[in-house]
Amino acid sequence: MIRVLLADDQSLVRAGFRALLDAQPDIEVAAEAADGEEAVRAVRELRPDVVLMDIRMPLLDGLAATRRVTGDEALRDVKVVMLTTFELDEYVFEAIRSGASGFLVKDTEPEELLRAVRAVVAGDALLSPGVTRRLIAEFAARSKEPAAAGRLAGLTEREREVMALVGIGLSNDEIARRLVVSPLTAKTHVSRTMVKLGARDRAQLVVLAYESGLVRPGWLG
């Protein structure tokens, strides 16, 4: 059973999400929170699998709340998906850097929301359809000069290659086709790379790919 925490200051939004999620045989809503402070307390107490976190909330906004959750080693297994009204919300970029596993617009289709919850539990980064490449492009445009790539020293050449492909937004299936390997092999390479670098998920792997200079702006294709 996948346990979800709903964090949104609008009770109507929470009620709609709860009705959808609780109707699924493999998902249950563990708790609700109306502000960021309450959300962080609930996460620490209940250790849900996924937090659906609104970006704009009183007392503590969703971005700050996400940093507290993802910065706590004891909560490493908790995945955060940011909720936003607009696909290009100015905070989404920083949310991904802060450890969120992705984001969804609030008016996303019900099936997409369910897929999102299941996807992040499986360890996949999740972004609304059509947003992945735009977000990566935005990250590339805002990135500072690459930091020293020393942290990649422990990666094999194939793992560096796979990391670069993750960095430009390719899925496991797309990586498998590009490298002419099985999807399972591609997934294994991605998983090993994340473990070696201490990345929570694919979203952080994208961040590291840019920050290390392994992927540079203009490589999207």
From TrEMBL:
<dbReference type="Pfam" id="PF00072">
    <property type="entry name" value="Response_reg"/>
</dbReference>
<dbReference type="InterPro" id="IPR000792">
    <property type="entry name" value="Tscrpt_reg_LuxR_C"/>
</dbReference>
<dbReference type="GO" id="GO:0000160">
    <property type="term" value="P:phosphorelay signal transduction system"/>
</dbReference>
<feature type="domain" description="HTH luxR-type">
    <location>
        <begin position="148"/>
        <end position="213"/>
    </location>
</feature>
<keyword id="KW-0597">Phosphoprotein</keyword>
<protein>
    <submittedName>
        <fullName>Response regulator</fullName>
    </submittedName>
</protein>
<keyword id="KW-0804">Transcription</keyword>
<feature type="modified residue" description="4-aspartylphosphate">
    <location>
        <position position="54"/>
    </location>
</feature>
<feature type="domain" description="Response regulatory">
    <location>
        <begin position="3"/>
        <end position="121"/>
    </location>
</feature>
<dbReference type="GO" id="GO:0003677">
    <property type="term" value="F:DNA binding"/>
</dbReference>
<dbReference type="GO" id="GO:0006355">
    <property type="term" value="P:regulation of DNA-templated transcription"/>
</dbReference>
<dbReference type="InterPro" id="IPR058245">
    <property type="entry name" value="NreC/VraR/RcsB-like_REC"/>
</dbReference>
<keyword id="KW-0805">Transcription regulation</keyword>
<dbReference type="InterPro" id="IPR016032">
    <property type="entry name" value="Sig_transdc_resp-reg_C-effctor"/>
</dbReference>
<dbReference type="Pfam" id="PF00196">
    <property type="entry name" value="GerE"/>
</dbReference>
<dbReference type="InterPro" id="IPR011006">
    <property type="entry name" value="CheY-like_superfamily"/>
</dbReference>
<keyword id="KW-0238">DNA-binding</keyword>
<dbReference type="InterPro" id="IPR039420">
    <property type="entry name" value="WalR-like"/>
</dbReference>
<dbReference type="InterPro" id="IPR001789">
    <property type="entry name" value="Sig_transdc_resp-reg_receiver"/>
</dbReference>
